[in-house]
């Protein structure tokens, strides 16, 4: 068997190839792209023999283990397509492993390639090979993550908008309690400062409310106009002019993000609907097309990726960790996790409260013991992830009585 450490950079890869005894067979700096990958194949082929073939398949590439600090990109995809066993290693773990070779803090690209090769040679059983997810679910993950990132971006711009209005135009916050509403964005773009807002006619406000399909637009327009024209403290004109530019820019960004989020949401729902696991996922309480797509995409669809429900829970970050030393034992939340999946499972647990009597009873029981809201949601999410694992393993849809037998029996 051969063990390859690949320390990647934007333009090149530092490579070290070792044998089973840890002897360095080759070392090179390869360029990114086809030429570099071809040279890597040549280096590996120079040291492979027929005796290195996989005993089950006879495939030579299966006896090559590659350690690299990423699981994405064309280079990684090409390594997987070539048949190598690729281990995407956590940079934090690699940094700790590097300390085994020296405590001076010295670091180099060649040294990192050596450390990566050592990890896959000695400790590969403690690391997970790259998941064998389908291209369809990998594509779904990219779109779902972009959709989620745009939502997070919109939230950041919304917070900046609210902060600016609070500092120079607090009346707008009273007139528009929901700054994300279409009529609020339209009117703030038209009148981003107190002077122009006070000149807004009732007919323009009413028209904006009607376009947003609000009830009783005339009554609401009168209330909004009164709030915008009420006496209030003012900033100096140059400061108000600067704030007005900030408000206009934020409003336009939020409006554009709203459009893109809607378009991406349609793409996510369409891609998710074509996946064979979609019916099982959406049968879970609290999961619809978009949130279900995020959960499925982050977990992946490799049937052999998770040995059991505990492994899936650990990856989701819903299961706690224990720190024990002597007589001291502390159970803590798991914060080192996939944050995209962690956010999705937290929302899933919250949505399940109204969709599943068993989930609601479980949550209420936790709260009655003095557990906080977010901690209770995390424990509920942990249970829901285990239920999803069982449904995917047995290829069955969610059943309330099977999922919560004791709670549903007590309620009956």
TrEMBL record:
InterPro entries: Transp_IS110-like_N, Transpos_IS110, Transposase_20. Residues 279-363 form the Transposase IS116/IS110/IS902 C-terminal domain. Pfam families: DEDD_Tnp_IS110, Transposase_20. Coiled coil: none annotated. Residues 4-170 form the Transposase IS110-like N-terminal domain. It comes from the Bacteria. This is IS110 family transposase. It comes from Blastococcus jejuensis. The lineage of its organism: Bacteria, Bacillati, Actinomycetota, Actinomycetes, Geodermatophilales.
